[in-house]
Design goal:
460 residues; alpha+beta; 2 domains; six-stranded mixed sheet; elongated; Quinoprotein_ADH-like_sf; 6-blade_b-propeller_TolB-like
């Protein structure tokens, strides 16, 4: 899965039939507050299958995508009718590399400690040797002048500069595998397929964490929209970061003492009468959270201020847990704004491809069951006709399991996986040993998020 601006690309194939072409679906993402559908299909590209199972995709610019398929790198025009590449280069490697792009440059992570940088015509610019990298990248992201490398089973994400020197490591005790990373002012890491931990960019401080449905890749769009993709179901989900942050804070505030509430209210320079009213209330923590929302102090859109405010909360809780007073004393300079009102919809596409792509949006108002929706678009066979379906519904209790108690990460250990790539990868269903209670590949059902029933291989 790749995102650039308002474009989304998802690649994969049907692992149940070896003779099926692989595909890349391209979509245009609509504004989150728009009355139009969540996304609009742009085009689909079909590719002949060869010995390689996996394909990586990255959006180079508004008109071009780059794919890595085995040892071949191709650049395609997005809307061209044929599947002939504009540019091709052979990496002469024996393992599927990972890829990403930035401002006309293409970064290819090889099955070693090297990253090759190409221009948009696939002319080699340079090779970056990453110090201390002992496994090939499972996911690679470029942000600013830094490379972020995930190697799957290694218990950290490593941030490198363009000379290959380590800048930071992002770790999370209790989790075993970091599979995907996305950066947009803050750092978002997918741990153990089911958990996302948010870090500050500058000093690797953990700001918050939450659970997601079983996923293999995550990408952030416009700061407040988190996209995840699940390989076995072909589903791409969108989560509102405002919603996730709010639910996380509700769990955090639920364990706060009156002293914590008083310190936090003073930190944000509440009027004295408001502070007294809050600490004298039986529901002081709930009242404090409402007051923070009313004053617009928490929102995902302004990442620097959100980092500062969540960091302040973490310091307060750390001081409380250690039996000492909070170290928070100075006020936050910027107030943030809370947004509401996004809706929950479903879009399903099932054309000539053997599998489907689905985009789902979580409602930001979990107490309200959505009874009306904007429908969904579907292309049937080669037809471009549209039909509407009733949207999925969701109640508040459906998402309660997504938010674990703060600072209590759950550990999920998985065997070492060597496969990586496309919407499907690693062992085939026939090669993978069945586990007790596991479902047939491709059969999706809702279940509690206590860990996957088998370790899915990585997709892109």
């Amino acid at each position: 899965m790749a995102v650039r601006g308002n474009k989304l690309a998802v690649c994969g194939y049907n692992y149940r039939t070896d003779d099926t072409p692989s595909f890349i679906d391209l979509f245009t993402l609509n504004d989150s507050d728009s009355s139009s559908p969540l996304m609009t299909q742009l085009c689909t590209k079909l590719f002949d299958r060869s010995r390689w199972r996996y394909r990586y995709v990255s959006i180079l610019d508004d008109s071009h995508i780059v794919t890595v398929y085995g040892d071949l790198v191709h650049v395609y025009h997005i809307e061209a009718d044929d599947s002939e590449p504009l540019h091709t280069v052979n990496l002469l490697h024996d393992r599927e590399p990972s890829a990403c792009s930035r401002e006309g440059e293409i970064f290819i992570g090889l099955s070693s400690n090297e990253v090759i940088v190409f221009d948009s015509s696939l002319k080699k610019i340079k090779t970056i040797t990453l110090k201390g990298l002992d496994r090939y990248p499972a996911d690679i992201t470029v942000y600013g002048d830094n490379l972020f490398i995930s190697t799957g089973q290694r218990r950290a994400i490593t941030r490198y500069n363009m000379e290959g020197k380590i800048v930071h490591e992002y770790k999370s005790p209790g989790y075993s595998s970091a599979w995907s990373i996305t950066v947009s002012g803050l750092v978002y890491i997918l741990w153990d397929w089911l958990h996302v931990v948010v870090y500050s960019l500058s000093d690797s401080q953990q700001l918050m964490s939450f659970d997601v449905d079983e996923s293999n890749r995550i990408r952030i769009v416009d700061v407040n929209r988190l996209l995840t993709v699940c390989m076995y179901t072909g589903e791409v989900r969108e989560y509102s970061m405002d919603l996730l942050r709010k639910r996380y804070l509700q769990n955090v505030f639920a364990v706060m003492t009156r002293s914590d509430s008083e310190n936090l209210a003073n930190f944000f320079m509440f009027p004295l009468k408001h502070v007294k009213a809050i600490i004298n209330s039986p529901s002081h923590s709930e009242d404090l959270l409402v007051e923070l929302e009313n004053k617009g102090i928490i929102q995902s859109a302004l990442t620097d201020e959100l980092f500062e405010n969540l960091g302040a909360l973490n310091k307060l809780l750390t001081g409380r847990s250690e039996g000492s007073k909070s170290s928070i004393r100075s006020p936050s300079p910027t107030l943030l704004r809370q947004e509401e009102g996004t809706r929950y919809q479903n879009v399903e596409l099932s054309g000539t491809r053997p599998y489907r792509s689905v985009l789902q949006r979580r409602s930001s108002k979990l107490t309200v069951r959505e009874e009306e929706g904007k429908g969904s678009y579907s292309s049937i066979g080669s037809s471009s006709s549209a039909h509407f379906k009733q949207p999925l519904t969701m109640e508040e209790e459906d998402m309660d399991h997504m938010f674990p108690e703060p600072h209590v990460p759950r550990n999920h250990m998985f065997p070492d996986m060597e496969g990586s790539g496309g919407l499907v990868g690693g062992q085939s269903p026939e090669e993978r040993p069945r586990q007790l209670g596991s479902r047939e590949p491709g059969k999706h059902r809702r279940r509690s998020l206590r860990g996957p029933e088998y370790p899915p291989p990585v997709e892109t």
